[in-house]
Design brief:
Length: 329
């Protein structure tokens, strides 16, 4: 929630279709510096880009960091059709227009990668390239057959990595998460990354963990003050909007739009940053998927868990700066 996390940098904009977004914007220091569009995932907000907002802006780069649809200061529609990727990609283009940015580098984490993938499809002229963090480029028309994904990952790794999606596709998940936000945090921002193998990926385990009210100590890379800000954000916004991204994908909301896309490969340079201790969006799976769909690809692997932008901010900054030099010189 930009207004809570970054009150001096926060803006709001109502777009042409009436949708309102809250976001952070810092202009580039000069015309020689590119602007980065930072797109968060689940369950997150612009707050989880705080290290990148500081580092990039302090070195002269521009940043635009929205609370994505369903989160923070942005609208939280209940109807799943509002979460069409093509629609949200056009929203991001409008935010660029409002900030007078013709082209940028888009950086995305987790579910933000689903959106940046469709930005590459529908708004490629607005981008120099994309950086996908923890998750690979998502090709248009992907069918989210979670039962098949569960079965495949169980066979490959001895545990399922997509089991929590089945819970996220229920109305009970919204109630569970709203009633136990501290447990959601402990599960999704794990102190021990191995928790995801036992209590997140396998079918039924995430719901069981959250409903039990379990909590763990904060990870070393997330301070109590930072957690307090995040807690204030989700106390206002809740989890309905974020979970709608899962539901819309599984229920085929994007199918008709993406059936019209003939070229499914990523049309832009793509830096994929993955991590060795991410046991759900696994580095091996994301790397293999990217090699299948991204012709202009570079892969970097860091030694940390899923939250690369929080766990290894300095290393990620160096990668972003290097990528900017490559694609936007």
């Amino acid at each position: 929630m930009a207004s809570i996390a970054f009150p001096s940098l926060a803006k709001k904009a109502t777009l042409s279709d009436g949708t309102t977004y809250g976001y952070v914007a810092v202009p580039a220091a000069s015309s020689s510096k590119v602007t980065f569009l930072l797109l968060h995932g689940y369950p997150s907000s612009c707050w989880d880009w705080r290290h990148q907002i500081r580092a990039l802006s302090q070195t002269g780069y521009g940043v635009i960091v929205p609370d994505l649809l369903g989160y923070g200061d942005s609208d939280r529609p209940q109807e799943l059709a509002a979460y069409r990727m093509k629609r949200m990609a056009s929203h991001m283009a409008e935010l660029l227009d409002i900030e007078k940015i013709h082209r940028c580098i888009a950086v995305a984490h987790d579910w933000g990668v689903g959106l940046v993938s469709r930005l590459a499809t529908y708004q490629r002229q607005r981008l120099y390239g994309i950086v996908t963090v923890s998750v690979s480029y998502v090709e248009p028309g992907l069918v989210w057959d979670i039962d098949a994904f569960v079965q495949l990952t169980q066979q490959l790794f001895g545990y399922a990595t997509y089991g929590y999606w089945k819970w996220h596709n229920t109305e009970e998940a919204v109630k569970d998460c709203n009633e136990h936000p501290a447990s959601v945090f402990s599960l999704v921002y794990p102190t021990d990354p191995l928790l995801w193998k036992s209590d997140f990926g396998p079918v039924g385990k995430a719901a069981e963990f959250v409903r039990s009210g379990k909590t763990t100590p904060l990870p070393s890379w997330y301070s109590l003050d930072e957690y307090t800000v995040r807690d204030r954000i989700f106390a206002k916004s809740g989890f309905m909007g974020g979970l709608s991204w899962y539901k819309s994908a599984m229920q085929g909301i994007n199918s008709s739009d993406e059936a019209e896309v003939s070229d499914k490969e990523c049309p832009l340079p793509n830096l994929l940053v993955v991590s060795e201790q991410d046991y759900v969006t696994r580095a091996d799976m994301q790397s293999a998927k990217s090699k299948e769909w991204v012709p202009d690809l570079r892969i970097e692997t860091l030694d940390c868990g899923h939250w690369i932008q929080l766990e290894r901010p300095d290393e990620l900054f160096k990668l972003l700066e290097g990528f900017a030099t490559e694609v936007a010189a």
